């Protein structure tokens, strides 16, 4: 059959179906105007034409699988679904199918009448064959929440979707509390160096380690080693350029979080805490659906708000002079009540200041050092 595909993009290509987009797809079904327009491809810019081999999908499924096999069937073929499904129904091929995802494209010029299309849908309904929606371009499928359920262990402090910015308020009789968290980036060597430095400190320091899904996939043994003594939480699936995560579509946020949680599930780890790049409502909603508590540090190094690091106030100075500047920023942000302190493992100075920070917290701050679960419990 002849496949009609979208032409390569160029600045003067024009709009595709009235929209400025590069679909990147094609179809076996085109209008007469599109077929005749070999130069631009008509409304959908389908100027690339090529003879392609086809396969009888219904027969192929029956020939290559057993009814007992577990088959997830995804069908997104720009109008060809009507012919495929008609033959599958006729040959009872849905006995092989356990789950059916896909899209219908009633606007495609398939040559079928609206009545014929409706008849096919009615037959699917009568035979109790359910097509679950699948919309890859918006990162969504119908049972996404059902498939990716996440339940934290019983006894976990806090409430899913709630933002925790501190460890509660101290008093003259009860010292303020501080919880130390590590925001692990994608540099495994620097993360290992920072965390091992803290673990080697003369006193046990409860730390919580937040990782991207991609980091977990790349360094599973490192994550498992850390999890023996420390809380493992999630960040997004991967890092974004600064400021961009605040602007992305909510479906991307959900997918990012699902990826991160799944990567830990593959290691038999269940996260309970999420440290996001920002705290938009859709981010906290995604966290709530995953049963995750949202951790947003009181004090960060490097700081992301307020007084930021510049050449003049920080990088101009030698390492021995940068240490007290960094510690003073953290101490000022903690104030009298303490809170959540984070170190970004990708910043080289996090390693340098870590021991001095611990000395301050243990010897001079008057704060009680607690794990993130205890911190949240006192919020």
Largest sheet: 6 strands, parallel
What Rg, in angstroms, do the CA atoms define? 28 Å
Helix fraction by DSSP (H/I, runs of at least 4): 25-40%
In N-to-C order, the SSE pattern is EEHEHEHEHEEHEEHEHHEHEHEEHHEHEH
Please report the distance between the alpha carbons of the first and last residues: 65 Å
Number of separate helices: 14
Low-pLDDT segments: none
- What would you call the structural class? alpha/beta
Number of strands: 16
- Overall average pLDDT: 93
Task: Indicate the proportion of strand residues.
Answer: 15-25%
**What's the overall geometry?**
elongated
Defining key terms:
379 residues; alpha/beta; 6-stranded parallel sheet; 4-stranded mixed sheet
Topology:
Layout: E1 2-5, E2 26-27, H1 32-36, E3 48-51, H2 57-64, E4 72-75, H3 81-90, E5 99-102, H4 114-126, E6 132-135, E7 140-141, H5 144-147, E8 163-164, E9 177-183, H6 188-199, E10 207-211, H7 213-218, H8 220-227, E11 231-234, H9 250-265, E12 273-274, H10 281-289, E13 293-295, E14 299-301, H11 311-315, H12 319-334, E15 338-344, H13 348-364, E16 368-369, H14 372-377
Parallel strand pairs: 4-5, 5-6, 8-13, 9-10, 9-15, 9-16, 10-11, 12-13, 14-15
Antiparallel strand pairs: 1-2, 1-3, 6-7
Helix pairs in contact: 3-4, 6-13, 9-10, 12-13
């Amino acid at each position: 059959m002849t496949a009609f595909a979208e032409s390569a993009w160029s600045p003067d290509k024009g709009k595709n179906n009235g929209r400025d987009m590069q679909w990147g797809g094609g179809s076996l079904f085109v209008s007469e105007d599109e077929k005749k327009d070999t130069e631009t491809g008509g409304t959908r810019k389908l100027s690339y034409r090529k003879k392609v081999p086809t396969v009888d999908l219904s027969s192929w499924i029956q020939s290559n699988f057993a009814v007992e096999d577990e088959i997830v069937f995804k069908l997104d073929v720009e109008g060809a679904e009507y012919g495929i499904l008609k033959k599958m129904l006729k040959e009872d091929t849905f006995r092989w199918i356990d789950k059916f995802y896909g899209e219908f494209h009633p606007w495609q010029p398939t040559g079928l009448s609206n009545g014929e299309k409706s008849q096919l849908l009615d037959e699917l309904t009568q035979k109790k064959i359910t097509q679950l929606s699948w919309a890859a371009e918006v990162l969504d499928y119908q049972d996404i929440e059902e498939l990716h359920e996440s339940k934290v262990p019983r006894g976990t402090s806090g409430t899913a979707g709630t933002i925790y910015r501190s460890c509660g308020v101290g008093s003259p009789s009860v010292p303020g509390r501080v919880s130390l968290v590590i925001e692990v980036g994608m540099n495994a060597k620097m993360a290992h160096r920072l965390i091992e430095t803290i673990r080697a400190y003369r006193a046990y320091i409860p730390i919580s380690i937040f990782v991207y899904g991609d980091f977990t996939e790349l360094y599973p043994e490192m994550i498992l080693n850390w999890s023996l003594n420390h809380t493992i939480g999630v960040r997004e699936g991967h890092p974004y350029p600064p400021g961009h995560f605040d602007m992305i579509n909510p479906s991307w946020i959900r997918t990012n979080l699902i990826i991160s949680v799944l990567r830990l599930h593959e290691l038999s780890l269940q996260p309970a805490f999420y440290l996001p790049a920002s705290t938009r409502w859709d981010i906290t909603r995604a966290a709530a659906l995953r049963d995750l508590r949202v951790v947003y540090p009181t004090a960060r190094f490097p700081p992301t708000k307020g007084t930021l690091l510049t050449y003049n106030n920080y990088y101009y100075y030698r390492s021995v002079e940068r240490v007290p500047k960094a510690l003073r920023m953290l101490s000022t942000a903690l104030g009298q009540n303490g809170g959540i302190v984070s170190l970004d493992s990708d910043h080289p100075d996090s390693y340098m200041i870590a021991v001095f920070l611990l000395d301050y917290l243990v010897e001079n701050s008057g704060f009680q050092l607690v794990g993130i679960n205890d911190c949240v419990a006192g919020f």
